[in-house]
Amino acid sequence: MQIPQKMHEQYLEAKQIIENSEDIKVYSHIDCDGICSGAILSTILDRQNKEHEIEFVNLDVLDDMELDHELTIFSDLGSGQHIDTKAGKGQKIIILDHHPPLRDLDYRNDKDYTYLEINPIHHGIDGSYYVCGGGLCYFLAKEFGYTDLSWIGVLSAIGDMQNTRTGHFEGLNEIIQQDAIDGGYLSLVKNDINIYGRNTRPLFVALSYFSDVKLPITNNTSETMAILEELEIDEKHNRKTLNQLTMAEKGRLYKRLNEMLSKAVPGKYVKYIPRLILGDSYTFLKEDETSFLRDGSEFSTAMNACGRNHEEKVAMEVLKGDRFASLDELEAVSLNHRRNLARAISSVAESEDSNIIELENLQYFDGTGIKPEIVGTITGMILGYCNWKKPIIGFTQTDSDGLKVSLRCSRLLSYDGIHFGNIIRQVAGEVGGSGGGHAMACGAYIPIDKKSEFIERFNAELNGKLSN
Ligand SMILES: [Mn+2]
């Protein structure tokens, strides 16, 4: 895939607009993709000696907002919001977003301001799998000649889960990945064993978090240790990481995981098993060998941890090159984040009477007291404690007296064609809320008194869609 001609012309125009602006504001999203987008844009602007401010925001603050700068750039958001209702004479807006756009490619109105929206969907390119916010910002950087930022584009796509469908990057993401490899920033192992924590977690711990299907090893480190010993991978419990395994050891581990999964899943899912175990792995070659920044997934998790704790700027400074003060802060934020998660998990899943309620087609828990920012992560971790054949939904209250809803499910359900992001958008809409997201990780905000109606409607909506 190449960048379409029309889209390339848009990039040339964006470059010109930036070169001709002095007072610039960037709004970007609070997740890994948004933070990577902000870091790329900020680096471009620094190198162009442009004064600028960056703010990381939630989507809900964007509609009908005041624009106070000569140029306002929106990255990883903006396409789905009414961001130009208050644009004034002579102001300029650039959007770099991959979410479904409200406005057409040739959107213009009669007001006297500059509006440029670069969105792959306008050009027939899928924004879920082929390019994300950070990637779109990288192509702008490339227009300025800054291909050294390609690795941040790769990281953004990892964080945005652009590779979940196949385990590989496709479309425009493949160009970014190749730029990063050519520049010596990235090494790629195709179809590697894809278990989270390859660089810093002992393998017996990493394996115990396997939760797409409940296996004997799930949440059971005695079992993972026994298996690693039996496979002669880690006989002395010396806390080897996945990264330290030889190809032969990885081969034995793959075979064993495959056997375990084949026994555990219904026949129709068997064909998806390799995709649960294998995927490309990404190593950032400029990072320290033992650092969590070296592995793409671990790096992206740290970015998300910052987003969840309103420390996006710490994350951005690390991306922009600060490996001293900001890296220390990043480690502290991550550690604190992990502690909060552990505390929340034990309150939901490990308490005497677990409060996970199972219905015909779904299961849910009341996460009252869990911060809205982390309820999604918690919900994903709870999956390992319940029935993987149904989605798990977590609820918690927001500051504004609404309910935040998060849904996670086994990747097998999404491989089999269910898109929960679309379903949650519909059902949340039916009860007066809003929602959306990925096939297997999504969320919504709903009025607090609509919880039981939401659950009922969601359960009914799934009739006949799951194979139990
Ligand atoms: Mn994104």
Total beta strands? 13
Largest sheet: 6 strands, mixed
Tell me the number of helical segments per DSSP (H or I, 4 or more residues long): 16
Tell me which ligands are bound. manganese (II) ion
* CATH architectural name of the largest domain: Alpha-Beta Complex
Helices and strands, in order, run as HEHEEEEHHHEHHHHEHHHEEHEEHHEEH
Number of domains: 3
CATH C-level category of the largest domain: Alpha Beta
Q: Pick out the low-confidence regions.
A: none
The overall pLDDT, averaged over residues, is 94
Strand arrangement across the biggest beta sheet: 8-9-10-11-13-12
CA gyration radius, whole angstroms: 22 Å
CATH topology of the largest domain: inorganic pyrophosphatase (n-terminal core)
How much β-strand is present in the residues? 15-25%
Q: In whole angstroms, how far apart are the ends?
A: 39 Å
Helix content: 25-40%
Q: What structural category do the secondary elements indicate?
A: alpha/beta
- Overall geometry: globular
Task: Output the keywords.
468 residues; alpha/beta; inorganic pyrophosphatase (n-terminal core); Diaminopimelate Epimerase, Chain A, domain 1; 3 domains; six-stranded mixed beta sheet; binds manganese (II) ion
What would you say this structure looks like, in words?
The structure is a single chain. With 468 residues, the protein is of the alpha/beta class. It has helices at 5-19, 32-47, 133-143, 150-159, 172-182, 203-208, 221-230, 247-264, 273-277, 296-308, 312-319, 325-348, 372-382, 411-415, 420-430, 451-461, and strands spanning 24-29, 52-57, 71-75, 92-96, 114-118, 186-193, 278-284, 356-358, 363-366, 392-397, 402-408, 434-437, 441-447. 46% of the residues are buried. It has a 6-stranded mixed beta sheet with strand order 8-9-10-11-13-12, sandwiched between helices. It starts with a helix and ends in a 7-residue tail after the last helix. The chain folds into 3 domains: 5-182, inorganic pyrophosphatase (n-terminal core) (Alpha-Beta Complex), CATH 3.90.1640; 191-345, no CATH class; 356-461, Roll (Diaminopimelate Epimerase, Chain A, domain 1). Bound molecules: manganese (II) ion. Residues 33, 76, 98, 132-133, 160 line the site of manganese (II) ion (MN).
